[in-house]
Design brief:
CATH architecture of the largest domain in chain A: Beta Barrel
Helix content of chain A: 10-25%
Shape of chain B: elongated
Radius of gyration of chain A: 26 Å
Radius of gyration of chain B: 25 Å
Shape of chain A: elongated
Strand content of chain B: 5-15%
Number of strands of chain A: 14
Oligomer: heterodimer
Number of helices of chain A: 3
Strand content of chain A: 25-35%
Order of helices and strands of chain A: HEEEEEEEEEHHEEEEE
CATH class of the largest domain in chain A: Mainly Beta
Number of strands of chain B: 12
CATH topology of the largest domain in chain A: OB fold (Dihydrolipoamide Acetyltransferase, E2P)
Number of helices of chain B: 10
Largest interface: A-B, 65 and 72 residues
Bound molecules: protoporphyrin IX containing FE, FE2/S2 (inorganic) cluster
Order of helices and strands of chain B: HHHHHHHHHHEEEEEEEEEEEE
Chain lengths: 263, 345
């Protein structure tokens, strides 16, 4: 080795002591750097919203199916006081897939059903992920069919928000909004997960979700894809059906917010 | 038939290298996911894994890109370069895990083919802020795949070093695409300017190291020759060359490595046949020039690798007159024997 000073030859079995010391120092520095960067990035991520997806926790529910404008299950409001609606209209999607529930409840409009599902909720907003094959019509057996939805006209509104899909945004994906989630929201909406306009009032820390339908009340899907996941302005007629807010608007009349504001 | 390429040989150094790499990656992922859950109780494991794999891959890529210039600036980094291929393959595996997880999480189980969905779900090609950043990621992944798949010396020999080297310069295209992937993706969704700062710092580091190494080489290439006579050029005093080492001279656009050993002087092309490593930064060990990058060997007398290997580099005629080294700048065909010049004083 005397003719060698510290020259390193990788295919030899060992390296000189000086080289080894240097390499050790570099490895320690690299590990320290990686540790710092892992911690920094983990800490700097935007806060995750507090949605809940009770994945794996299938439960049985009884309620009345409503097929339009998006599949819903109308259930008695849980622990409800006179301050809230006595009934809740839960949006439905298909458990275990990026899919809507239209096929699972087809032809059951107005019927009482028993089904198995998994809850997804964010604040007071709930979606039920229906287990395929579990829906059974039980007719009047569990009581009289629910009366028609109580519809309250809230008038023409102009709203700023972001189109999200109900299933992801209520808790299946966190985050379930914004640029990086855009493609997923698009896939979900194209596949039948109910499209919502998510409106935030940051100052008061409040948020609203409105089911987006056409001006004539038809379900919307693929035509929303150019608008999903970015800041837009929508004008339309708002109706509350039970506790579900529905926004009747045409995509042709959507407007984009200023370019870099789409956060 | 001679060996077409050098078989991978496992040795304790290589094992230590891989063990260290695996430990580093495991440490990073564990810390990222652990800190993520610790600081963000509503985080999901899927999101933390996608982000952990993606950031680990990008971080490792910065290291891979830094090693080259670091070695030019300080040879003590060379042990990190020897097995750099392993860093590349590990980085590709992390990038693939990230891309596969992201594709499954965001695109699978819907109404469309997930791979088609990656390319089409966001149609906003007309917008800067909304541009589908996934396209940059998919491009980078394709380039990295090509490199990882051909990283073994088997491919180097079969694709020819020139094609191989061109393919592997693609790492810069992949890096550029990944900076855009992150800039148009995560950085649009995240609120903290510090994250943008981290990406910018990494980019500045990679560019800065390359500029520094490039400037050093450019300085070396500006050396002028002392004199010229009858087509021969005078280079330096023989004792200006360290024993069993070389000095590199830029001669007509080529670099020539002039070695001194056992009272003699020999000149070879500076460019290693393996991956263009700088032979003049190598050393003579057991009578052979050893490339500093991966240890290919060449005899100074004829520029040939010792049997069973068959690599050859160009040789040059040299003379020593009054202790001064003179070189005939016309390269001889690779492997041409040239009697080493005896140092006369
Ligand atoms: C088909 C290929 C790819 C797809 C579909 C893809 C998808 C994504 C998505 C959806 C995000 C945002 C995730 C989030 O913020 O929750 C992201 C971020 C990121 N990607 Fe990729 N990616 C791909 C390729 C790559 C490659 C090859 C790398 C290599 C290093 C990479 C590195 C990153 C990094 C560092 C981030 C930022 C951290 C993060 O948010 O995850 N991506 N990618
Ligand atoms: S470049 Fe690999 S051994 Fe010379």
């Amino acid at each position: 080795m005397s003719e060698r000073d510290d020259f390193y030859v990788g295919w030899e079995a060992s390296m000189s002591a000086a080289t080894r010391r240097f390499v050790r120092r570099v490895v320690v520095a690299a590990f320290a750097g990686a540790t710092a960067i892992a911690g920094a990035i983990a800490a700097l991520q935007a806060p995750f919203a507090a949605g809940v997806f009770e994945y794996g926790d299938e439960r049985e529910f009884v309620g009345v199916v409503r097929e339009t404008p998006a599949p819903q299950l109308v259930v008695s409001g849980p622990a409800c006081t006179e301050l809230c609606s006595a009934r809740s209209a839960w949006l439905l999607a298909r458990y275990g897939a990026k899919r809507g529930a239209a096929e699972l409840v087809r032809g059951l409009d107005g019927r009482v059903v028993r089904l198995r599902g998994v809850l997804v909720y964010r604040g007071d907003q709930t979606l039920l992920d229906v287990v395929p094959g579990s829906v059974q019509a039980i007719g009047d057996a569990a009581g009289a069919p629910a009366p028609p939805a109580v519809a309250v006209e809230l008038g023409e509104r102009r709203l700023r928000g972001e189109i999200v899909d109900a299933k992801c945004h209520f808790g299946v994906m966190r985050p379930g909004s914004g640029k990086t989630h855009r493609a997923c929201a698009a896939r979900c909406i194209a596949s039948g997960s109910p499209p919502l306009l998510w409106v935030r009032d940051a100052a008061r820390g409040r948020e609203l979700h409105l089911l987006l339908v056409g001006a004539d009340g038809r379900a919307l899907g693929r035509e929303l894809l150019p608008w999903v996941g970015e800041a837009i302005e929508v004008s339309g007629r708002v109706v509350r059906r039970d506790d579900l807010l529905v926004l009747h608007a045409e995509p042709a009349a959507f407007r984009r917010e200023a370019r870099w504001a789409a956060r | 038939m001679a060996h077409a390429y050098r078989a991978v040989q496992w040795n304790p150094q290589k094992r230590a290298y891989d063990a260290t790499l695996a430990a580093g990656i495991a440490l990073y992922l564990a810390l990222f996911v652990g800190a993520g859950f610790g600081l963000q109780p509503h985080a999901t494991l899927e999101t933390l894994l996608i982000r952990g794999f993606g950031t680990a891959a990008l971080l490792l890529l910065h290291g891979i890109l830094a090693i080259g210039p670091l070695c030019r600036l300080d040879r003590r980094f060379l042990p990190l370069l020897y097995n750099r291929r392993h860093l590349g393959v590990a980085m590709f595996a992390l990038a693939l895990a990230h891309a596969a997880f992201a594709t499954i999480q965001f695109h699978a189980l819907g109404d469309a083919d997930p791979l088609a969905s990656v390319l089409t779900a966001n149609p906003r090609l007309d917008s800067a802020s909304q541009f589908p950043f996934e396209l940059f990621g998919a491009f980078a992944l394709a380039v990295l795949f090509g490199m990882a798949a051909t990283s073994h010396d088997f491919w180097l020999a079969n694709l020819t070093p020139r094609v191989w080297k061109t393919l592997h310069m693609g790492v810069y295209a992949a890096y550029g695409a990944l900076v855009l992937h992150v800039a148009f993706g995560a950085l649009q969704a995240e609120a903290s300017p510090a994250l943008t700062g981290l990406v910018a710092l990494g980019f500045a580091g990679v560019v800065g190291l390359h500029l520094a190494a490039g400037a050093r080489e450019a300085r070396a290439d500006r050396q002028t020759v002392a004199a010229e006579r009858d087509g021969w050029i005078e280079l330096c005093h023989a004792h200006d060359i360290p024993e069993r080492r070389a000095r590199v001279f830029p001669i007509g656009g080529e670099r020539v490595a002039v070695f001194r050993f056992d009272g003699k002087v020999s000149a070879l092309s500076n460019v290693c046949k393996h991956q263009n490593g700088p032979l003049g930064e190598g050393r003579i060990v057991d009578g052979c020039v050893v490339c500093p990058w991966h240890g290919y060997q060449y005899r100074p007398e004829d520029g040939r690798s010792p049997a069973p290997f068959t690599d050859r580099v160009a040789t040059y005629r040299v003379r020593v007159v009054g202790g001064r080294v003179w070189l005939d700048p016309r390269a001889l065909p690779p492997g041409t024997p040239v009697e080493p010049a005896k140092i006369d004083v």
